[in-house]
Design goal:
77 residues, globular
């Protein structure tokens, strides 16, 4: 896998965790997804494949994308 593919996987994992929070899923399922994401990100950082600033940028972007999509899909009051 190249670096862009690794970061795409990070985005997908973070998006899954963020969506699970919005959906109010089961706590165990949400924590398992959170653990996968944390472990994957930690492995990339420990291996030196990604630096901290780049990881923070990818995570922030993925969360923002999911939150924006959820807000757009929310019914107007």
């Amino acid at each position: 896998m190249n670096k862009s593919q690794l970061l795409a996987q990070v985005r997908a994992l973070v998006a899954d965790v963020t969506r699970a929070r919005f959906e109010g899923g089961a706590y165990a399922k949400m924590m398992r997804a959170h653990g996968y994401a944390d472990g994957y990100m930690r492995a990339l950082l420990d291996a030196g494949l990604v630096d901290r600033a780049e990881m923070l940028k990818v995570v922030g972007s993925a969360r923002t994308d999911v939150v924006s999509a959820e807000l757009e899909a929310a019914p107007a009051e």
